[in-house]
Amino acid sequence: MTSGRSLNRYLLFITLAYFTLGFVHIGFALSGLLCMTIPFVLVFRDRKKSWCQGYCPRAQFFDLFRKTGDTAKTPGFLLERKTRDLVLSYFCMNLFFIAASTMMVAAGNMAPIDRVRILIIFEIPFAMPQLLSQPVLPPALLHFSYRIYSMMTTSFLVGTLLALLYRPRTWCRVCPVSTMSDRVLKNVIQTSREA
Ligand code: SF4
């Protein structure tokens, strides 16, 4: 019988589907918000990082890069707390920019940016083909969708590069979802002990 863990491997197709569907209609990018909320729902429910331990589609994708021989050692700086904090700060700053720019677009003070940008500023040199022209998104939602897709693409590319260079899940060392889950978990456990 196929174990739950081996079934989880198929979750990697969610990662592939996510990035492919962005080329069909950018509105699908909004599903990336699930990857930012479900991990925390599970932390509260299970009192452990169930998402990271079994369900994360991205980690399942990184596992494709398992090597048979020796793997290069993860550089020390990626294991340091300050690197995790730095990546978390970048993530929060990115979310802040996304929220602020979306509000500006909604208020009519800025045109939507309908291009994918890597690391916030580096625009990819082509417009994403959109195989579905409907539904036409309101400007603010269009902008928000592209920004979420950009953020997901950036972390995916960095994670894939790290997986190619080092161990498959090297990205998990600095992943902001993991860092925040650790902190939420610590607080949840602490609160339940004090209760
Ligand atoms: S650390 Fe991030 S990439 Fe790794 S399993 Fe958890 S959520 Fe997924």
Mean of pLDDT: 94
* Count of separate structural domains: 1
What are the segments in which pLDDT stays under 50 over at least 5 consecutive residues?
none
Helical content class = 55-70%
- Say what oligomer this is: single chain
Q: What's the order of the H and E elements?
A: HHHHHHEEHH
Question: Could you write a compact summary of the structure shown?
Answer:
This protein is mainly α and 195 residues long. It contains eight helices and two strands; from the N terminus they run ααααααββαα.
Describe the protein's topology:
Blueprint: H1 4-8, H2 12-24, H3 32-46, H4 50-55, H5 57-62, H6 81-106, E1 117-118, E2 122-123, H7 139-165, H8 176-194
Antiparallel strand pairs: 1-2
Helix pairs in contact: 3-8, 6-7, 6-8
Bound molecules: iron/sulfur cluster.
The site of iron/sulfur cluster has 12 residues, from helix 4, helix 5 and helix 8.
How does this model look, in words?
- The chain crosses the membrane at residues 12-41, 87-106, 148-166.
- InterPro entries: 4Fe4S_Fe-S-bd (IPR017896).
- It comes from Marispirochaeta aestuarii.
- With 195 residues, the protein is an all-alpha fold.
- The chain has one domain (4-194).
- The protein has helices at residues 4-8, 12-24, 32-46, 50-55, 57-62, 81-106, 139-165, 176-194, and strands at 117-118, 122-123.
- Strands 1-2 form a two-stranded antiparallel ribbon.
- A hairpin with a 3-residue loop joins strand 1 and strand 2.
- Helix 3 packs parallel to helix 8, helix 6 (81-106) runs antiparallel to helix 7 (139-165) and helix 6 (81-106) crosses helix 8.
- Iron/sulfur cluster is lined by residues 39, 51-52, 56, 58-59, 169, 171-172, 175, 177-178.
